[in-house]
Design a protein that fits this description.
This protein is of the alpha/beta class and about 200 residues long. Helices cover about 25% and strands about 30% of the residues. Strands 3-2-1-4-5-7-6 form a seven-stranded mixed β-sheet, sandwiched between helices. β1 (about 35-40), α3 and β2 form a beta-alpha-beta unit.
Length: about 200
């Protein structure tokens, strides 16, 4: 989907497309970190950026959908986040940050995009990526059905160089209680999660 299609989807939604909380694994990893500066990549209608801001992070949420960003900014606490309309292929932060989070960003050039956003992480900072795993198709979970844009642990691990220490890179099963969409899921889904720290 391009920006225009996402704008249409957000405008058609009642109060937003996504759940109001980030995925459980993102909350687990980021919740253990001391607040600093953060970028939420492909923020959509803002759930992860807002969650981080509520916990003391100085947060920027970027997305190429102006309609999604408008929903995010209108949510309670929306004025605590810097919302930026930008494409992940073109955005350049003013400075590196302590945390970069990407939830369900699926592109034709996934590995290159992850490598690019990893450049925004400061030394000592953290990168967290979660997205639909290619095995999610066979499992029947919600999400894209094109394997070319889905993740595997090998893909995410290979997107980073030796400046990063990988803490975790694996498949995770997201249960129906850890919803991605506001109206929940009928069955579990398979994701891939990457948690890495920049060491130099």
């Amino acid at each position: 989907m391009d920006a225009t299609q996402w704008d249409e989807r957000y405008r058609a939604s009642a109060g937003g497309v996504w759940a109001t909380q980030p995925p459980a694994v993102v909350r687990e990893i980021a919740g253990a970190l001391a607040p600093g500066s953060a970028i939420d990549v492909a923020t959509g209608d803002g759930r992860t950026a807002l969650w981080l801001a509520q916990r003391g992070w100085t947060t920027t949420g970027i997305d190429f959908s102006s309609a999604g960003l408008a929903l995010a900014a209108a949510r309670p606490g929306g004025d605590a986040v810097s919302w930026v309309r930008a494409d992940v292929h073109e955005f350049e932060p003013a400075a590196s940050v302590d945390l970069v989070v990407s939830c369900y960003l699926h592109l034709r050039d996934n590995a290159a995009a992850i490598a690019r956003i990893a450049e925004w992480v400061a030394v000592g900072g953290t990168l967290v990526v979660i997205g639909h795993d290619v095995d999610n198709i066979a499992a029947g979970g919600h999400g894209p059905s094109d394997p070319a844009i889905l993740y595997t642990p090998e893909l995410l691990r290979g997107a980073l160089d030796d400046r990063f220490r990988i803490e975790r890179c694996e498949q995770v099963t997201r249960g129906t209680g850890d919803s991605e969409l506001r109206d929940g899921h009928a069955q579990p889904a398979i994701d891939t999660v990457l948690h890495a720290v920049r060491v130099r």
